[in-house]
Every structure is written in structure tokens, then in C-alpha cells.
Amino acid sequence: MKLILIGPPGSGKGTQGAILCEKYNIPEISTGAIIRNEIRSNTELGTQAKKFIDEGKLVPDSLIIDIIKERLSKDDCKNGYILDGFPRTIFQAEELDRMGIGDYVVLNLEVADEEILSRLGGRRECPSCHATYHVTDNPPKTEGVCNECGTQLIIRDDDKAETIQKRLEVYHTQTKPLKEYYSNKGVMVTAYGQKKLEDTTANVEKALAGGIQ
Ligand code: AMP
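Above: inputs. Below: predicted complex with adenosine monophosphate.
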């Protein structure tokens, strides 16, 4: 199964992707996570990408496409994968089609802007194992502490208030047109993100089980 997750930042792509990759036993490939890892490792690519991420902008297509080509060529992608955060522009979507990846399904996660603003503001991340939480909607068992590894949770640099608005703008201008691109191809299903994680998960299951309309 090849599944592409699209939706605004904070719509739950990462959370749903993690649930689905376990269910289908395929890797979840998050371009955002790959880039953050490069930044932490101080690589050349990380240095180039950091200024874009910190301003809430998209990293240039050329950098991202090289990353994804490399990642999809790995052995663990043979039986499928879940793409979280790629493509994010029409150019990236066309490039992916040019790579000839075969059949895929696109899951569009719909969440209203007001909800996104509240979600991103409350998002917390574990700097060690990268599990994500939300202060009210998906809180850790102990406030501020990761359930998985006990590390103190942090706010991602690009989840800071001043960056969130920019990321949402970027979504509307550059990423939202993907909905039309994929629905015209007849490969997209839509699920509505809800406040409660399990309600979103149920909507996602229903959307995927219903198949392409
Ligand atoms: P995410 O974790 O998916 O929200 O991504 C965090 C940041 O990484 C984004 O705001 C972009 O700066 C960058 N990024 C991730 N994926 C892409 C992509 N496909 N194209 C361009 N920039 C990306």
C-alpha cells in the first residue's frame, strides 16, 4: 500500500501516519522529521534547510526531492509506505508521479484553520524519541514528560506562535491546490480531523475502507 497524507500542519498527519504504519506494517516517511534530523546532526542539508523551517516556509523543492528519491529507494519501501508531508507543492506531486511509483491512495485530512491554530499552539514534542502530544487533546500521563522515554517535552521551534500563522498561509497558497490535483486524478479520500484522537482515527478508517468515491 502506498498512502500519501495531505492536510494542513497540525491536522494529525504524523499521528495518523504512526497508527497506520503499524497497522499496515510499512514505514512512515516524514520529510519534516528527516529534515529536523539533518538539522540536529548539523549536516550541510540541515544547515540549508534550517532557515526555511524556522521561518515557517517550505524548504526548496530541489532539496526535498533528492531526500525523497533517496528514501524511497531503500529496501523497506518495497511493500509500500506512508508519506507524511510530501508532496507539499504541485511541482513535488508531479515529480512523484514522474518517479513512476505506481498506484497510490491520497488521504486528505480536513481541519478548520481555527482548530489548527489552537492545536499547533498546544503541541509538544519529545526531543529524544519524537513522540508528539497536545496539552489538552492528547496530554502525556505526567504533565510535560514523555510517556515513552521520560524526557522533558519541548515546543518545536516552528510551533512558536509567530511561525504558526506563516505555516498556515503557506499551506493555503502552496499545498492546498494538491486537493484538486489528486481529486481530479480520482485517487483521494477525505477524513475530517476531530478534537479527540480516537474520533479522527475512526474517520480515517472509515474513509480508507470506503475507498475512492
Ligand atoms: P512537518 O513536520 O511536516 O510539519 O514539516 C516541518 C517543516 O519542514 C515544514 O514547515 C517545511 O519547512 C519543511 N518541509 C517538510 N516537508 C516538506 C516538503 N515536502 N517540501 C518543503 N518543505 C518541507
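Residues 161-175 form the longest helix (15 residues).
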